[in-house]
Each structure stands twice: as structure tokens, then as C-alpha cells.
Amino acid sequence: MLSATIVFFVVAAAPFPFGSTNDIAIAFWCLCLGVALTFVSTAGLRRRHLRLLGGIGLIAVGYAFVLHEQLSDHPWIAPFQQVWTQTAELLGTPISPSASIVKSQPLFALGAPLANILAITLGIIICADRGRARQLLWVIAISGAAYAAYGVLSFLIEPTMILWRDKKAYLGSVTGTFINRNTAAAYFGSCAIIWALLIIEQIRRRIPERRLIWNRLAQDISELPPREIVPQAAALLICLIAMFMTVSRAGVGLSLLALIVSCVVVLRKDLPPRVGVGIALGAGGLVALGLLQLFGGQVSSRFDSQGLVDEGRIEAWKSTLRIIADHPWFGTGMGTFTWAFPPYRSPDISIRGVWDAAHSTPLELASEVGLPLSLLIALAWAIMLTLLARGIFARRRDAIIPLAAAATACVALLHSAIDFTLQVPGYSIPFFVLFGAGLAQSFGSAGKTVPECTEPDAAGVVNSV
User: Fold this and answer.
1) Residue 53 domain-assigned?
2) Which residue stretches of 327-424 are H helix?
3) Domain range for residue 243?
4) Residue 347 lies in a domain
5) Fewer C-beta within 10 Å: the chain N or C terminus?
6) 3-class SS at 168?
7) What is the tally of structural domains in the chain?
8) How confident is the model at residue 354, as a pLDDT?
């Protein structure tokens, strides 16, 4: 109970302090998650869960090895960066070399990866219990709706402020408590996906037939008690509105795509005989386009004027690839992209501003820690998505837990390929806990030790959490 309470608190509060990008916030969440891991019970784990934890342990060992090489004065196999030799020659004085281009920076940059590892570990252990896993869905959904409501209201009342600070960028967009509108779009879109799945499950549970009868669907929904459907529908709507008001092209597009696919997957057995999955996806796409035109006029305008990807971002990716080519094994050091990028900066990129991120998490990760650890992490992502897919199609009940994890993982992974969503702890921490829950529930439940959140109203959810 103590560990679950701490984790739910972290999941709900991590987005609040400006996306938790500050080192103090990250350290605090690591402390909270560390305490939760200290007191967590592993009694409900089975052999498959232990294998998952073993895989996460392997990634942790990989990080520890790379960290040792980049921080040590005597690394085992990593070569020293040539910049230290060149600097010593220019200054005419000996300088202790390092495998990182900025000494000690990898230690300060460890916070976010450590928080994610702790989050997914606790997600697996705590949410091996299906009741806890379902509570986690509600915690993420309710907190996401609250942040979406705040984002919309703050934009309407005082669009130049984020919480108690002046808003320096994206003045025409909703960002919620995040600094970047793209991260906000992915967060609100991911929460909208969870709300949609919870609503569909609620409707199916209340309809007496084993399959949905589409001709009677409107009548069946109208007969549901308003308190059981109206609050959830309102929460879904506010998340969608906030998502569209971020004016993020990739965030809105990927979230809508994941929302359509996840809804079709959960309803695949209820589709009429003449309506296949392909037709359902096509119809969902038309609905998404309608929503985009209705709520996302500015998003459409950005697609028309700027296309799918900014030219400067493409050049930045090419520059990052050159960094990787020159430092393939151990990278330039965790957290050193800001210092590594200028010598490789393409002349085709505008001279305005400082590039402190590659706008592609996989490329930036490879440039900082090297290809071996990056490929290990990519393999872990592939295994995770495979296991989640197995859980979606193999489970008869609680399939929305691995489905929610898979859908939000796809949003996070695809969006991070062209931006830095997973590098923002306020987004990554809650959803890494969800990824762990989805993995744990891909193999079935280890038992139910807390009441299942089957028919919660707003007060019931809060009380159960």
C-alpha cells in the first residue's frame, strides 16, 4: 500500500513542476521512487515477471558500465576524447583526460534515465496485481484531465503564464504545465487514449449482450446512468481540446492515429460482419480528419505552411549522425549534446538560437552513450512492444491495460523519434510506470488483493487511490 501510494503520487504530480525538467525535481522523484522500491512487496511476482525485471537489470548494468567509462580517470576500454589532448596542447599545461567531452556531466545527466528505470520496475512489481494496474489507469487519466483543464483555462485567462512563471515561447498554444507544446500534445493525447478505452470498456460492461449491437448502441448508451458516462466523456473531450490547442503537428497526428487504432483493436470482435478492420480504420481516419478540421484549424495550417518536418530539424539529424560516426562506441558523454553539437552544426541551419537537443531521442541517445547501449535499449523496446501485443490479443479480460500501454508507447516512441518527448521526465515517468503495468498484465493476473475499479465515479476513484 505504501509503495503504491508513493508511485501514484509521483505519476499524478510529475507533470506539475514545468514537466519536471529541473534537476531538483528529477532528484526528488528518484528519491520517492527509490523509497517505493525499498518497501515494495514482490510476493505477487511470477517467473515471467522476474524475467522482465532481469531484462531491466541488464539495461541498468549497461548504463552503469557506460557511466563508469565516461566518468573514470582510468576507463577499462573507452578511449579518451581527443578534445582534452588538443586543449592541453593549446594551453601548454597538462589536463587530466576523460572519455566524456564534459567532465562529470554524465553523472548529472543520470537522473532522468534512473527515474525511468525505477518507474518501469515499480510498474511491473506493483501492477502485477490487476486491481493496482486498473487504479493506475484511473490515476493517469484523472490527473491528465486535470492538467488539460488547467491548460485550457490558463490559456483563456492568462496565456502569457505557465503556473507562476512568464511564458517565453508558444504564446499561441496550450502547453499545460509543460514548457514545450509538443510534449504537452503527446501527454494530453495519451491521456485521451486511456479515457477512450475506459469509456468503451464501461459501455461494454453495462450492455447485457456479449457483443455490441450497433443498431441499438445509441439507445443502450442513453440508458446508462449519466454519472457513469458523462464525467468520463467530459474528461475525454477536455483532453482532446487541450491536445488540439497545443497546435503540435506530430503530437496531434500521432495521438489521433493511436486513438483510432486502439479503439478499433478493442472493438474488433464487435464489428459487424460486413465491416472489417480495414474499413473500421478508414472510417476512424475520416472521423479524425473531421475532428482535425473542427478543433485543429491551426494544426492544419501548420501542415499546409511547414509540411511534416522542419528543414532545420532534418539538418540537425544529419549533424547528429556525424557525431555518432565519430564517436560510435561510447558517445560523447551522457548529457553532453549541447557541447558536442556546435562543431558539427550544419551551415544550412539558421544561426539563430542554441540547439540543446537533437529533436530525435534515439539519435541523441546514440550520440551520447554510443551505439552498443543504444541498440540494447532499442532491442528492449522491441521486446516490450512484442509482449504488449501478445497481451492485447491473448488476454480475455483487462486487455485494455496492455493496450493502453502499447498505444501510449507507440505515441511516445514515434514522437520521440522526431522530438524529445521521452526526455521530459514529467511525461516519461508516468508512462514508464504504465509500460511496466502493461507488461505485468500481459501475462495475466497474479491475483486480486485490492478492489477492482469496475464502476467508479469521480469520488470513488479518488477514494480507492
Assistant:
1) yes
2) 337-340, 361-369, 371-394, 400-417
3) 2-310+358-464
4) no
5) N
6) coil
7) 1
8) 74
SS3 53: helix
Work out the burial of residue 463: count CB atoms within 10 Å of its CB; fewer than 13 is exposed, 13-18 middle, 19 or more buried: exposed
Alpha-carbon distances, residue 339 vs 86, 107, 336, 416, 441 (angstroms): 16, 16, 6, 21, 42
User: Residue 158: is it exposed, middle or buried by C-beta count within 10 angstroms (0-12/13-18/19+)?
Assistant: exposed
Place of cell 537522473: 111
For the chain, the C-alpha Rg in angstroms (whole number) is 23
Q: List phi, psi (to 5°) of 127.
A: -90, 15
pLDDT digits (tens, 9 = 90+) for 237-294: 999 999 988 888 888 888 988 998 888 888 777 666 555 556 556 655 666 656 665 5
72, HSE (Cβ side, Cα atoms, 13 Å): 13
Q: Is residue 353 part of a domain?
A: no
Could you tell me which of 176, 133, 147 has the C-alpha nearest to residue 433? 133
**Grid cell in block for residue 398:** 483487462
Work out whether the CA dihedral 101, 102, 108, 112 comes out positive or negative.
negative
pLDDT mean over 381-407: 90
Task: Work out the pLDDT band at 147, boundaries 50, 70, 90.
Answer: very high
Q: Is the dihedral of CA 127, 32, 334, 429 positive or negative?
A: positive
Torsion angle in degrees (nearest 10) through CA of 295, 297, 300, 301: -160
Give the pLDDT confidence score for residue 210 in this predicted structure. 55
pTM of the model: 0.87
